[in-house]
From TrEMBL:
Signal sequence residues: none
EC number: 5.4.3.2
Protein name: L-lysine 2,3-aminomutase
Cofactor: pyridoxal 5'-phosphate
Organism expressing this protein natively: Actinomadura rubteroloni
Keywords: 4Fe-4S, Iron, Iron-sulfur, Isomerase, Metal-binding, Pyridoxal phosphate, S-adenosyl-L-methionine
One Gene Ontology molecular-function label: L-lysine 2,3-aminomutase activity
Taxonomy of the source species: Bacteria, Bacillati, Actinomycetota, Actinomycetes, Streptosporangiales
Domain of life from the UniProt record: Bacteria
């Protein structure tokens, strides 16, 4: 397998400062065209960097001693992990700490309330006992809504002798499963709504390893047609482990699709090209497709620069050659991708690479949400402006969508009805399937960032409140 990289597109001249190319001198994105034979590189070995490396890495970014301490304080609450590929290939260190990829993976001193950061900084400064630091960090975490949208109270099903570990079942046709061995990532995003999975608190984790129980649950619920493996990142697992979860599903006629939620294409594309089990993993994908299942690779790309490295193009090509479909999604994040130019470039590039734009999400109501959130009115403007500049092939994308308690709520636009300015919304997915696709209205609020900030228009309640 191999590819030639023969063309480029130029980024729009109006790209904002929060959307710099990796090199300030060379504002081009390399794209893939034709596959031709090429030598296969052995690649580099994976090397992770964690909180113990923050002092050195933030010094490289030019942070003052006070800001470095504050960053370490935030990292006692929110998880930090990155790798050499992200550091060497994606971050523009000449623009750090304002570089969007730097902000994507490194905690920021003002992500948490100043009082909390001051308390934690003081504990670190005086080298307080680890237990004291962890207790203070835990108290902060509990105020950050670690499990949004009722995902523990409403989504974990009971079956047999009790609840099913590692499973969520919010929509009739789809089950989410969190393999125990997939509860980490190649690197963590600072905005991740699954952050509670990575902080070492067993009470906050969702994880399962009983494959027989998963299969028994599916058989007992024949309306389920799709299984989504998530985490963490399912692609942190090696091929033998992933096979243990996937292979039993191939014999279930009711299962039409298997989805894999992953950031690996952006953070470690070597997984599918040069890692020791890369070929075996792709053979597993081929087996899923050969069994008559739709294998959907739910790839998380947050910024156009993540699509630039040649290794990403090769990884995407190899995955697509198995018959799998790569769908792309990401949240809209302030200071990282909050411009129409960024999204337009991502969708056009992804379409040229054979990927399918799928979702623009609204940052969920958890973790440092206030730091990253974009008002819904502005989110729709960004979506609309980017959507207007892409071809119909890229208009498979939906959004901006809130994964809220009642379901995925899409902001369709802003209009005026009987003299009142309102948001037009609908449910893409819903706990109550009868509500899917039904438009409803909310009073216009330019400051609203989440469903809970909205108030019904023309009625006293939203349809899902019935």
């Amino acid at each position: 397998m191999g590819v030639s990289w023969a063309s480029s597109i130029t980024l729009r001249d109006d790209a904002p400062a929060s959307f710099p190319a990796k090199s300030k001198e060379n504002r081009h994105v390399t794209l893939v065209n034709d596959a031709v034979p090429a030598a296969r590189s052995t690649g580099r070995k994976f090397r992770a960097f964690t909180a113990q490396h923050l002092e050195e890495l933030t010094a490289r970014a030019g942070l003052s001693p006070g800001d470095r301490l504050a960053t370490r304080a935030v990292a006692t609450v929110l998880p930090f992990r990155t790798n050499a590929y992200v550091l060497d290939e994606l971050i523009d260190w000449s623009a750090a700490p304002d570089d969007p990829i730097y902000r994507l993976v490194f905690p920021q001193p003002d992500m948490l309330p100043a009082a909390d950061v001051a308390l934690l900084s003081d504990l670190l400064r005086r080298d307080a006992p680890r237990a004291e630091v962890e207790a203070a960090a835990h108290a902060v975490r509990m105020r950050l809504n670690p499990h949004p949208a009722g995902q523990l109270e409403l989504n974990v099903p009971s079956f047999g002798d009790g609840r099913v570990p590692g499973m969520q079942h919010k929509y009739d046709e789809t089950v989410l499963y969190f393999p125990k061995q997939g509860q980490t990532c190649h690197a963590y995003c600072t905005y991740c709504f699954r952050w509670a999975q990575f902080v070492g608190d067993a009470d906050l984790k969702m994880a399962g390893s009983d494959v027989e129980q998963l299969v028994s649950y599916l058989v007992a619920h024949p309306r389920v047609t799709s299984v989504l493996f998530t985490g963490g990142d399912a692609m942190i697992m090696g091929e033998p482990v992933l096979r243990r979860y996937v292979e039993p599903l191939l014999a279930l006629d009711q299962i039409e699709s298997i989805r894999i939620g992953t950031k690996s294409l952006a953070y470690w594309p070597q997984k599918f090209v040069t890692d020791p089990d890369a070929d075996a993993m792709l053979r597993l994908f081929e087996e899923v497709v050969a069994a008559g299942k739709n294998l959907a690779f739910m790839a998380h790309f947050t910024h156009p620069r993540e699509l630039e490295p040649l290794m990403v193009a090769e990884a995407c090509r190899r995955i697509r050659d198995t018959g799998a479909v790569i769908r792309t999604q990401a949240p809209l994040i302030r200071s990282i991708n909050d411009s129409a130019a960024a999204w337009e470039t991502m969708w056009r590039t992804q379409t040229r690479m054979g990927l399918v734009p799928y979702y623009m999400f609204v940052e969920r109501d958890t973790g440092p949400r206030d730091y990253f959130a974009v008002p819904l009115a502005r989110a729709h403007e960004i979506f609309r402006d980017a959507y207007a500049n892409v071809s119909g092939l890229a208009r498979t994308v939906r959004g901006p969508s809130m994964s809220a308690t009642p379901g995925k709520v899409c902001v369709d636009g802003v209009t005026e009805i009987n003299g009142e300015k309102v948001f037009v919304l609908h449910l893409i997915q819903a706990r109550d399937a009868s509500l899917v696709g039904r438009p409803f209205f909310a009073r216009y609020d330019p400051e609203a960032i989440w469903l809970d900030d909205l108030r019904p228009a023309f009625t006293d309640h939203f349809p899902f409140a019935e």
